[in-house]
Amino acid sequence: QVQLVESGGGLVQPGGSLRLSCAASGFTARLYTMSWYRQAPGKERELLAQILTDGDSTYPTDSVKGRFTISRDKAKNTVYLQMNNLRPEDTAVYYCQGSGIWGQGTQVTVSS
User: What is the 3-state secondary structure (H, E, C) of 30-94?
Assistant: First the structure.
């Protein structure tokens, strides 16, 4: 079964860190561009980070540059999003996307 399963979300205080995981099954993630998106209530889904097949990464959203890092573990067929110095405005549901499919999302809440 082709699917993406995110995990690692939760409640964190401002300034804290979280690492999200996206486990791929049914396909080899390293052969595709893999992406992280987020969607906050009342807002459109926005693209945060991508890791390309050659390992290069891009961060189209300025607000996360320097704070978020996308990476992958080929052996585990998993993509990660390391999020540091989290802010209340980072609160959203975070989604992994690749090979034309989406994960179910994981909630990240940044609050004191």
Answer: HHCCEEEEEECCCCCCEEEEEECCCCCEECCCHHHCCCEEEEEECCCCEEEEEECCCCHHHCEEE
